[in-house]
């Protein structure tokens, strides 16, 4: 029996397979995230975990501002271009979104890097956090590219790849890098941010 969800939709089996694959990779990613956070808190201490959490919050706000809702547009327009069978249209859509998002990301990254000391001292009352915020500023354009790549993969119906890029690779690489940095350099407030 080949049930379908609607006009042009895939079969129930396709839907279930995609859901199981995504659930599996999200579970693996969640386990890796837990390992990373345990490594941060136990290896670097509570203060470093707090600086990491605040810095990641600033980074996520930066991504939100620079992407300005284009994540959903990327999924829609790339899926539309892919449905026409035009690789050129997919590439063109991706390039336009990438240029727009990177321009905003570099501008906001420059503002964050310049204002890191003020934000650390006056907003968070954590003067030693300015270096971590500067690292976050440097990561912001890369994070925007990763977000756009993930949404493009969703638009191309590459859900397993999207889940790997979004949920598995960041904590896996972060935990591996943090483990090496802890072994080589020892604990510091900035170390988890460097590892991310």
Short description:
The chain has 7 helices and no strands.
* Structural Rg: 19 Å
Give the amount of beta strand, in percent: under 5%
Question: For the terminal residues, how far apart are their CA atoms?
Answer: 46 Å
Low-confidence stretches: 1-7
Helical content stands at: over 70%
SSE pattern: HHHHHHH
Total beta strands: 0
Number of continuous helical runs = 7
* Helix/strand class: mainly alpha
> How would you sum up the global shape?
flat
Mean pLDDT: 84
Question: Can you describe this structure?
Answer:
The protein has 196 residues and is mostly helical. The longest helix has 37 residues, at 87-123. It is flat, with a radius of gyration of 19 Å. The termini are far apart. It contains 7 helices and no strands. The protein has helices spanning 12-44, 46-67, 70-83, 87-123, 130-155, 159-185, 191-195. α3 packs parallel to α5.
Q: Could you list some keywords that capture this structure?
A:
196 residues, mainly alpha, single chain
SSE layout:
Blueprint: H1 12-44, H2 46-67, H3 70-83, H4 87-123, H5 130-155, H6 159-185, H7 191-195
């Amino acid at each position: 029996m080949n049930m379908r969800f609607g006009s042009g939709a895939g079969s129930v089996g396709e839907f279930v397979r995609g859901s199981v694959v995504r659930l599996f990779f999200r579970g693996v990613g969640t386990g890796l995230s837990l390992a990373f956070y345990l490594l941060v808190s136990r290896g670097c201490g509570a203060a470093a975990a707090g600086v990491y959490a605040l810095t990641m919050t600033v980074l996520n706000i930066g991504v939100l501002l620079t992407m300005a809702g284009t994540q959903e547009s990327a999924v829609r327009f790339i899926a539309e271009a892919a449905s026409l069978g035009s690789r050129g249209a997919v590439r063109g859509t991706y390039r336009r979104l990438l240029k727009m998002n990177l321009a905003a990301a570099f501008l906001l990254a420059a503002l964050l890097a310049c204002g890191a000391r003020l934000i650390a001292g006056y907003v968070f009352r954590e003067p030693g956090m300015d270096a971590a915020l500067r690292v976050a500023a440097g990561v912001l354009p890369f994070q925007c590219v990763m977000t756009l790549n993930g949404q493009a993969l969703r638009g191309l119906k590459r859900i397993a790849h999207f889940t790997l890029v979004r949920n598995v690779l960041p904590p896996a690489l972060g935990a591996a890098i943090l483990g090496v940095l802890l072994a080589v350099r020892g604990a510091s407030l900035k170390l988890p941010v460097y590892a991310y």
